[in-house]
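Lab notes, practical 5.
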Amino acid sequence: MMIADTTSVAIPTILIVDDIPANLGVAVENLEAHGYRVVIAQEGSEGLRRATFVQPDVILLDVMLPGDNGFEICRRLKADAATRDIPVIFMTALSEEDDKLAGFAAGGVDYITKPLRIGEVIARVDTHLKLRRMQKQLQLQNQQLQQHQQLLEQEVAARTAELIVSNCKLEAEIEVRQTAEEALLESERQFRSLVENTPDTVARYDLKCRRIYANPKMLEQLGGDAEQVINRTPAEFPGGQSALEYQARIEQVLASALPANFELSWETAGGRQIVSFISLIPELAGDGSVGSVLAVGRDITEIDQYRRSIHRLAFYDALTNLPNRALLVERMRHTVADAAQYGYRFGLMLLDLDRFKEINDTLGHGMGDLLLCAAADRLLQCVRSHDMVARLGGDEFAILLPRVWEADAIAAMAGKMVMAFDQPFQISGREMFISASLGIAIYPSDSADIDALFRYADSAMYHAKRQGRNNFQFYARELTARSGERMQLETALRHARANGELALYYQPQIELASGRMTGAEALIRWHRGDGGMVGPEKFIPVAEDSGLIIAIGEWVLKTACEAAVLWNAGRASPVKIAVNLSTRQFLRNDLLATVRQTLLETGCQPQWLKLEITESLLLEDSSDILDVLRAFDGMGLALSIDDFGTGYSSLSYLHRFPVSQLKIDRSFVRDIPEARDKAELVKAIISIAQALNLELVAEGVETQQQADYLKRHGCLVAQGYLFAKPMPQAEFEAWLAENGF
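Output from the prediction step:
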């Protein structure tokens, strides 16, 4: 006789016992959205009553409850025949091994760590619901089999009684008995076929934990024949740590007479690592004592892999395989607890790759991703085994340094990381250089709050960038105020152009031999609405970091072109206006199209305009940038290198790129001719320009001695306060008229 599956399909019911309404709200909303019926209780006794009345499929039980804790409530659930079979999953922020063991000893089947991650909650609930249905089905099958056996025995007894009453019915009774025996044999055959062909492992253990039965699937996974497996305990065969854990669970069921469910990771005879969900069911003898234990195991390796995959997606960065922010914060919570208990300090570093966005924009995101992975590997080589390196997103990493007693140790580690980036990276056969800026916050001297430590380390990191990048800085309280000022500055800058607060000033460039004006440089100034003047050295870096430099740069270009058109109308000797371009304008904008459109709209002739670029742009070694510069040169626009000599100067790019002019930075001009080293450096720059047939302009000339020195050694054009200060347009036009230009 086949055993029918009579389990009905119903909406699973989840009982949540938790005294924190916020936890209940999140869990109820998401579990109901997943299709479950949810019942709640906010304290232990209420949970016991509802479990008895509702008979839920799974109980989510908080460990830390008012009154009796979760472990005691679980023990009372397991002591009650009406609720002992309901799986209990503990919810707790406790993570010590002893806490988990206490939960399992109380009868819990699983743990969910707070704060709740709803994907993990649903995955675990789904798993235990499936296992619960399997257990109920197996129990139902056992009950049906026992009922069937009882019916058969009653029928045989009836036939035997009839033999005593009437010998004449003996043949008929014998026939009935034979029929009953055949039915019993058929039922046993069907049951044996079911057990021996099931994909689950089935075994029965006696009071000494020896196997008295093992189905073929069990024999296959153990890798032995019946002679090796039967009458042997798990510890005897196959042996090992997993077998010892398995046997200990059997001993618990024998001692408690209560069923148990657990997961076991073990290696099959074929060398395959699997995870099994095992149900242990006590089988009672006639006197009510446990006579044996039935064990049914199901391979849930795929489910376990899915859970692990979900965990990895939730806590690890997909690109670098480093921990992500969520896992870092979880680790920091434990570190804060340990540090508070044992009195040590720990450091949090935030590390940002300098100018990484330019690499991404120039070489593409594929190369950028490869560089991020290489940077992650290099950081891992710098830290200790118990430190954590995490990727927060983009090019930002975090390093957690627990158990540090002195700030000097943190400084040494930070210095090691900065130096690690001195060596070039080999990416797809290409040598790449990049530096890093680090900010450091220390617990508890800076703060005992995790969010505050992140903010403070971030402020320190941006301070390191403002200090020139490629260094590390510890947090100081004034950095928080400075960060707030920078945010206010950026907000005000976003409205500055629309409010008419930006203006162009013009400083003439003078030919030293004749005193004739050859052109002027357009310099941006910001008059804030509150009446204060903000210097370009303060707001230009903010504009570049925020991306506002694109729109501001377009406005500067258009305004300068309009001025050039106005001043050159009818002039025999044109005024050439120099306009500074930011590297960001090249990397984040179709600059070539912008310049062409501006010239077209304003009517400005290319020969009236000079574009000033920085050395750092040329060092990008990008074919796209070279193509744009060559296009500018082809249009008749002059190209000048601003602040020459202040960066990583290289004669090779002067030869490769279509540059027509160099500008000697004011930092070199300031101390000549008195400072011998500066004077010799200026002479060297002049010699380079003459050798390459390039024009020269010296910036920041303030004394006649400086002008005479420059003219004597071959620099023919200069600008500075000796001749005129930067002036707004109306004042500059008056100066032109006054000086006959």
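Observations recorded by the TA: Residues 1-7 have pLDDT under 50 and may be disordered. Residues 507-521+562-725 form a domain with the TIM Barrel fold (CATH 3.20.20.450).
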